[in-house]
Design goal:
The complex is a heterodimer of chains A (659) and B (160). Chain A is α/β, with parallel strands linked by helices and 659 residues long. Chain A contains 21 helices and 29 strands. In chain A, the strands form seven sheets. In chain A, strands 2, 3, 6, 7, 8, 9, 21 and 22 form an eight-stranded mixed beta sheet that branches. In chain A, helix 6 runs antiparallel to helix 7, helix 9 packs parallel to helix 16 and helix 14 runs antiparallel to helix 19. Chain A is globular. The C terminus of chain B is likely disordered. Classes of the chains: A alpha/beta (659), B mainly alpha (160). The interface between A and B is large, with 83 and 56 residues. Strand 27 of chain A pairs parallel with strand 2 of chain B, so a sheet runs across the interface. Chain A: Pfam families: AIF_C, Pyr_redox_2.
Chain lengths: 659, 160
Amino acid sequence: MVKKRTLEARSKLQANKYPNQNACMKVAQSVEFVPDMDDDVGAGYADTRPSSTAQEVLKSSQCEKPPALAVDKSDDICKDPCEEFHRLRRETTIARGGGGDACGGGGEDDDKKKAEEKLKQLKLRCILGALAALVAGGLFAWLWSRQNKDGAGDGESPEDALKRAKISGFITTPSSSDKLPAHVPYLIVGGGTAAFSAFRAIKSNDAKAKVLMISNEFRKPYMRPPLSKELWYTPNPNEDPIKDYRFKQWTGSERSLYFEPEEFFVDPEKLDESVNGGIAVAQGFAVKKVDAENRIVTLSDGYQITYDTCLIATGCSPKNLPMFRDAPPSVQEKIMVYRTPDDFDRLRRYALQKRSITIVGNGFVGSELACSLAHYSKENNGGKVYQVFQESGNMSKVLPNYLSEWTTQKMKAQGVCVITDASIRTATRDESQLKLELNNGMSLLTDIVVVCVGCSPNTSMAGASKLEVDRSLGGFVVNAELEARRNLFVAGDASCFYDPLLGRRRVEHHDHSVVSGRLAGENMTGAKKPYTHQSMFWSDLGPEIGYEGIGLVDSSLPTVGVFAIPSNNDKRADSHTEVRADANADEQLKTATGPEMSCDPSEEPNYGKGVIFYLQNEKIVGILLWNLFNRIGLARTIINQNKSYDDLNEVAKLFEIHA
Amino acid sequence: MAFSYCKVFGKDKVIFATKEDHSTPSTVELPAPEPPQGLITKDGNINWSCPCLGGMATGPCGVDFREAFSCFHYSEAEPKGSDCYEAFRKMQDCFQQYPTVYNKANGGDDDDDALGDVMSSDSSTNIKDVDELTGGAGAAAAATASDSHTTTTNAVSKVE
């Protein structure tokens, strides 16, 4: 998929993806987030809309402490009793502090009592409401499950119903664990990219290998990168879900998210008797323990399978934030994480309904998703897309600060309302929307929140299995051959491995799952190879930013970036030049000019294309290719040198950044 | 005329380089990159791990594919592969049992295996062998029904 990310191909793709980028840019400017809302425009705008679809950023003043002028309006907006409860609480505290009182006159003490009484009532109402919601929810769930037991779908064929039930997690494959083989030569715990890559390697080296994968998902192995990228650029508007999750690759051809079609796989009940072997996937089963000494895997229901060699590729689970995790169900139902096709389906439905979507977090998934959603929203005349995070720019763990902030400007220009330097203090709910109070005093009304704050490796079986988990990096500790114990390997996100070149690491990237899964698979067939092939990663953030990295691409390291100054001809040919010359970034750059370097302040900084070296003890340990494609092999060669260079500009020359 | 210049943001340095500045050859010398292993190893064997096989060796007909391809690769008959009729027929029979696996590449996308490594390899020199296989398969299949020829060609073209 990534294989031929040549510049030419990529430009073509980008042209296809964003046919009218200049038009988009113009739209974007009007969408830019305005922190100061003391003008009447904001309030008036909110007022002209029905409260249920209010999609604007509101300053706290609009809900919690309405200025005299806006009292009525705020009442309109704050219909929900719980919402009013919060408004009242805010007002009470203000009243106590002797501050201005917004909601009607009267003596202060009187008011306080009244307010407190009302507050109590409201509290009660909130609790009752929540209870009612719970009961109703329970009833609904019961009815739903009953309906599903009956197997009744409206006009659905039995096969379709079965398939749907399998995917939605009602039916495991096979129907019970005792139909699984009692012994398999190759056992893989997990059913993701690392697992499938390991299978490929095993089968390549052992033609008749019988491989059993145990996945807690209800799907066959699939890849994740398109979930935050290509799938959003693939319309299929009438399909929900999109059949086989087909998406358009850069080549223009379509493929499925699934690595292979159903027919590729062997029925788990027939694996044992298959003459030529193959791969079977037990779907919907969890493993609670691996006994490395006796080579026995125990499923959560107690069923045991013995193996000759085993791979743990359990991946990781998205993290949530405590304030959402501990929130009432009414809030939680508007909060989601993002990792699976089901998450894609759900978010796509919201996007189709033109809901406003807020992404929390500035990493790969959050930033890619924000760009994709902004594009999708633009195409469909949809709702606003916000991205909120504590840091000062996107991808701050990866990109040096100047580039991170520059990237954020680019994302704003694409229509993402990026709110930097902000964390969410509380999340509350009115009838239709969520209200997020930020620590900078602003609040945000949104229909849905997508929490993209990283993920933690699935190592819950470590305790019972007596396997070591790395204290700081997380993940099962394995050696350079990805071996935790004899005949027990770990690959992918859950693997904390020893890289002989760069030290102990844990990497959460698609290509790392491919590379480490393959290495584990080879070693499971006896290769005894250490980790020597550095994995890479890539990401795309809209029409102007695509990058690839290798090694330790960690923004806490010192970096040297070499960027191409476009020649005059290039400038004229480049239609985005005016967008690139961003006023904000420009100023920041000029003020931060270093003393010992000779600089030409008249030159506009343009981070359009370049290479960035990440240094540790003066050596190049990481390389980021910024809008430069098809050079990752060269970057890998340089990382493998493990050397320091006097003049990094000379190293940069190798990358032909002007080509 | 623009010229190269630098900026420093704390620990992060930035160099803006002109095309002219980068037009002279780099003083840095790197070892020649190790030639990636292609479809045929140095000692003339078949590398079943080659990403260029796009999953052919690992699919449900992987074993039959290997037998047919090995037969062809090591064939000393004239024309090459003409002694592999049985192996190819077996492979075709298998392909027909899995239409969604072996007929999906209608779009002509040869990069169907998403697990393919980014830079790995381009074994274009070795691909010749597969090309020959196509020819051989054609020769071998010529005796059989014409539709099976198409199947083979399709399947093998996936390999390329």
